[in-house]
Amino acid sequence: MMAEETEIRTYEPPEEFARQANVDDASVYDEAEKDYEGFWEKRAKELHWFKEWDQVLNWDPPEAEWFVGGKLNVAYNCLDYQVEQGRGDKTAILWESDEPGEGKAYTYSELTAEVKKFANVLKGLGVGKGDPVAIYMPMIPELPIAMLACARIGAPHSVVFGAFSGDSLRDRINDCEAKVLVTADGGPRGGKTAYHKKNADEALKDTPSIDSVVVAKRVGEDVPMTEGRDHWWEDLAAEAEDECPAEEMDSEDILFILYSSGSTGKPKGIVHTTGGYLTQVKATTRWVLDVKDDDVYWCQADIGWVTGHSYLVYGPLSNGATTVQFEGTPSYPGPDRHWDLIERHGVTIYYSAPTVIRAFMKQGTEPLEGHDLSSLRLLGTVGEPINPRAWEWFHNNVGKGNCPVVDTWWQTETGAIMIAPLPGLTKTKPGSATRPFPGISVDIYDEEDNPIEGAGKGNLVITRPWPSMLRTIYKDPERYRKTYWERLGDKYFVEDGAERDEDGYYTITGRIDDVMNVSGHRIGTMEVESALVGHESVAEAAVIGRNDEDKGQAIVAYVILEGDREGDEELIKELNNQVRKSIGPHARPEEIIFTPDLPKTRSGKIMRRVLRGVAEGQEDLGDTSTLADPSVVDDLKAARQ
Ligand code: WTA
């Protein structure tokens, strides 16, 4: 009986899907295993290179170089090369605005022209090869245009998610010392308007490296423009030259920096380079997301996160696909917005996230009714573990049982998909990301750092280099080495827990470090803590992620006050604002608990496990005997009442 209860259904690839899949020969796994460098070399040959490489891989742990000596340009691959192959009149970006049915489409030729112009705008502002450019924008077409323009001239872009606060933007600009910031007056989202330029102005009070700001117009309201520094996008573009050659970039030149949360308060500037990144992003888009020439492909992530970089912009465009960029939210103007969009545009591939699927599930199937979703042929998810029930719901109600679901595991650091089914080949199991992509090798290690044999649970490890791996942390190689390589030497320590079953399938269970995953957004506990202690009434704060049915994790903050402020509603509001101001609204605590003390070990380390237990209402908090003062636990329980 037990076995029956825990048994998970498996799903063979639907026959019709398997017949047309980009990859339908299971020998790819063995072939890649025998010679993984050779496997990736074949994938690299699918790109356009000005000059091919002399060596596939130079691995001097923790430093990797892929396609050494090769020369290419990412924007050329995504634009000119597509036009050369006859896709000039094909839609490259299909942009749908916050209001249903409004939007704009760019063909590959049109997109190429816009990118060339904006590349010249950047050059005109003194941006050269190797100069980082900060981009802080809503989900408007100018965002991918700016990224591609940077790639064209070899300027690494640093995109900062548009919901980050001015303070967060300031820190990211200062870390990479960008000379130019590209932003917008603002943008509507879910019927509300956000004002990016206003936030940017906050940041710009203290960003000495910035000489120029380019502002795209989306909202059209008055915004303060600083003479000599701020320029309207449209004015500069109107004067820019049409032609702009694509810079020949070295395979290992930086394509972008993307800041990501880690265990400490300071976000890490994850560095991705050119040849290896595009090789793996292009291949995984074709193999896992099965993108083909006639697809209307929709990745619903914001471009401000890595998923948007790799699978809304670079992956689909380097494959010559039509990629949908959506400005709005799943619930505006009604709960059926995604289904309406899929129906109107005939979306064939829909790449979503567990948090979004769980929100849909909660609403029931009513919003789906009356929408023809028969264009869909593949579904994907990314960002956090997907519980089997949500997987099944997605498969049955959105995919009508006909679409394979690809659960894709990867990270900002990995650059591209690492563990996922090949939808024409792999039998799927709800909740499992299944097998490593061909050429990728992962394992599970125990707490003593020994590999586990067969089925088991432990720490996920990547055992050899991969083309789209991060190369370093911007200007901080020591932190790069310490964070990812110190523990295992030549193997990458993921900081995710995972379980492997008898079939060799992997289920990722979540982060094992102090990073929370809230609705698929990575937020460091320390970042929120340092925001809170920035408030004058806070003496100390400890933040944890509590399991949450909808968001995956919800942020709970324990706060010790100083002075004579009462922990009342008013103060909760102030603290929420404090977090909103220093990080952004997505990092606001769900619950703030005022407490006289925190559970600390004798060496002064906060026992987060206990805080998590209290926040989740667990009766048994495990061994608390190592606490300096075990009575704190009762205080905490009382404080939460
Ligand atoms: C989690 C997002 C389970 C994981 C691409 C990882 C997942 C972190 C999955 C990276 C998945 C991502 N199943 N967990 N399919 N995908 N994660 O850097 O904990 O924003 O380490 O990259 O998200 O988040 P990041």
UniProtKB/TrEMBL annotation:
GO terms for MF: acetate-CoA ligase activity; AMP binding; ATP binding; metal ion binding
GO cellular component, one term: cytosol
Residues given in the record as CoA binding sites: 189-192, 307, 519, 580
Top EC class, one word: ligase
Gene: acs
Pfam (any one): AMP-binding_C
Keywords, sorted A to Z: Acetylation, ATP-binding, Ligase, Magnesium, Metal-binding, Nucleotide-binding
Cofactor(s), by name: Mg(2+)
EC number: 6.2.1.1
PROSITE patterns documented for this protein: AMP_BINDING
Domain spans labelled Acetyl-coenzyme A synthetase N-terminal: 27-78
One GO-annotated biological process of the protein: acetyl-CoA biosynthetic process from acetate
Highest taxon of source: Bacteria
The name this protein goes by in its record: Acetyl-coenzyme A synthetase
Residue positions where N6-acetyllysine is found in the record: 605
Role played: Catalyzes the conversion of acetate into acetyl-CoA (AcCoA), an essential intermediate at the junction of anabolic and catabolic pathways. AcsA undergoes a two-step reaction. In the first half reaction, AcsA combines acetate with ATP to form acetyl-adenylate (AcAMP) intermediate. In the second half reaction, it can then transfer the acetyl group from AcAMP to the sulfhydryl group of CoA, forming the product AcCoA.
Keyword check for Glycosyltransferase: no
Ligand binding (Mg(2+)): 533, 535, 538
Processing after translation: Acetylated. Deacetylation by the SIR2-homolog deacetylase activates the enzyme.
NCBIfam families linked to this entry: Ac_CoA_lig_AcsA, PRK00174.1
Species per Swiss-Prot/TrEMBL record: Rubrobacter tropicus
